[in-house]
């Protein structure tokens, strides 16, 4: 079945998968990519002041023909006067409000957590943002906000994948206690940044059972954790692959636990350049060990 919306702590709904315009689209014209995402079924677009592409995102929103009410728009504050920066973002996006406005980094407000969050609360009350939240916040950062907050942040968007799941344990517990939904970016790192690691095994096993791709299994794992997926791609087939996660049967509890456990194993996939090829160090060490065993067995024969 398709992705279901999640309910935020303020009662608003948020689509559980978003098309992000950071990373590969940072400081680039995102119009074609965003329009393609909208035309293929994405209804949640995630952008930010510091991505420097809100204007092209706005162009895509207009050119797609999709009604404003049918698109969930997230943008993020990255510095400067909070209300003025949001108004600039709204102008660039060509909208009168965003569905979610986030503090992108704690450093943007560390000089005045209380005053900054108070301004965010005013923005919500004034209807410029339906929901407000944070990004890249730790438990300590959240506690600083909550010391004086009248409105609890609706979400905390963080880098989240099986390899840092345990590292975020206390943050995940705290967020759950406060009704703060986690948004996850960088979730495909196990297969894009750190391939060949321990997580590959349970992911491959689940993929075989489901007839799914490794990326779909990783996103199914994120979905099972109750988090919102934030991802991006320039390829139509990848968009359909990612949206297809909503049609997959859920991972079993055993599969989720196996991925969790594999993520506990330290893994740093460094490469060695051999004749112009980046060979994973783990592969190189395996080959060297194999050759050593062969050589040793031959020596014993003499």
List the helices and strands and how they pair.
Elements: E1 5-7, E2 13-15, E3 17-20, H1 31-39, E4 44-46, H2 54-64, E5 72-77, H3 82-93, E6 98-103, H4 113-125, E7 129-135, H5 139-146, E8 155-159, H6 169-178, E9 181-185, H7 189-192, H8 200-210, H9 214-224, E10 228-231, H10 236-243, H11 253-263, E11 271-274, E12 277-280, H12 281-300
Parallel strand pairs: 3-4, 3-10, 4-5, 5-6, 6-7, 7-8, 8-9, 9-10
Antiparallel strand pairs: 1-2, 11-12
Structure summarized in a few sentences:
This protein has 302 residues and is of the alpha/beta class. It contains 12 helices and 12 strands. The protein folds into 2 domains: 262 residues, TIM Barrel; 33 residues.
Q: How would you explain this protein's 3D organization?
A:
The chain has 12 helices and 12 strands. With 302 residues, it is of the alpha/beta class. The chain folds into 2 domains: 5-266, Alpha-Beta Barrel (TIM Barrel), CATH 3.20.20.100; 270-302. An 8-stranded parallel β-barrel has the order 3-4-5-6-7-8-9-10, surrounded by 5 helices. Strands 1-2 form a two-stranded antiparallel ribbon. It has a two-stranded antiparallel sheet with strand order 11-12. Helix 1 (31-39) packs parallel to helix 2 and helix 8 packs across helix 9 (214-224). The radius of gyration is 22 Å and the shape is globular.
């Amino acid at each position: 079945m398709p992705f279901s919306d999640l309910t935020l702590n303020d009662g608003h709904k948020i689509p559980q998968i978003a098309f992000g315009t950071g990373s590969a689209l940072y400081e680039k014209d995102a119009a074609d990519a965003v329009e393609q995402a909208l035309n293929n079924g994405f209804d949640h677009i995630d952008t930010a002041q510091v991505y420097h592409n809100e204007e092209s995102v706005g162009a895509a929103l207009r050119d797609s023909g999709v009604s404003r009410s049918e698109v969930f728009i997230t943008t993020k504050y990255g510095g400067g006067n909070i209300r003025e920066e949001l108004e600039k973002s709204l102008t660039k996006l060509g909208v009168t409000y965003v569905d979610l406005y986030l503090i992108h980094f704690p450093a943007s407000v560390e000089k005045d957590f209380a005053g900054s969050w108070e301004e965010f609360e005013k923005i919500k009350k004034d209807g410029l943002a339906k929901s407000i939240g944070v990004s890249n916040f730790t438990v300590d950062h959240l506690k600083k906000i909550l010391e004086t907050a009248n409105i609890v942040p609706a979400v905390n968007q963080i880098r989240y994948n099986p390899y840092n799941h345990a590292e975020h344990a206390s943050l995940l517990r705290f967020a759950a206690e406060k009704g703060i939904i986690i948004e996850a970016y960088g979730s495909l790192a196990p297969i894009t940044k750190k391939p060949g690691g321990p997580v590959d095994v349970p992911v491959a096993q689940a993929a075989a059972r489901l007839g799914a791709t490794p990326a779909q299994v990783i996103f199914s794992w994120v979905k099972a954790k109750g988090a919102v997926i934030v991802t991006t791609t320039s390829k139509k087939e990848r968009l359909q692959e990612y949206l297809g996660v909503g049609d997959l049967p859920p991972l079993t509890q055993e599969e989720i636990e196996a991925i969790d456990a594999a993520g506990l194993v330290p893994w740093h996939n460094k490469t060695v350049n051999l004749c112009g090829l980046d060979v994973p160090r783990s592969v190189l060490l395996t080959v060297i060990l194999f050759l050593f065993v062969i050589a040793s067995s031959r020596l014993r024969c003499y």
